[in-house]
Amino acid sequence: MSKAEQAVGLQSKGYNCAQSVACVFADEVGVSKEFLFRATEGFGSGAGTMEGICGALSAAIMIAGLKNSTADLDRPSSKGSTMALSRQLMTDFKKNVGALYCREIKGVDTGKVLCACPDCVRHGVRLTERTVLKSEGVE
Length: 139
What we know:
Elements: H1 3-12, H2 17-23, H3 26-29, H4 33-39, H5 44-50, H6 55-68, H7 79-97, H8 102-105, H9 117-132
Helix pairs in contact: 1-2, 1-9, 2-4, 2-6, 2-9, 6-7, 6-9, 7-9
């Protein structure tokens, strides 16, 4: 089963969109699923307000930081490359989904849903695989 479908399975168990995306990458970032579940709990539904960016995208950006950062507290040097990954994730997510913000994706003001939550989760996982893990041969 693909990571995208694993993430949708987590969502169907009650995980929010951010938790669903983050938890499938626990092994790749060397962090426990429990930690990722707790760390992303507030990102679901556009940070709980539908006003923020989609939780699936927030999780993808968090995974980019966990995977790319040097964690060198004395000489931080990876910020630029991590920000570049974040920009790429945001650009590609918007291209695939049609918006970045949960409220817009869910059509709160327009009545037109751009993307269902399970599809946002799939996009978040696939973009993370393609953008963040690409150097490891993940397509």
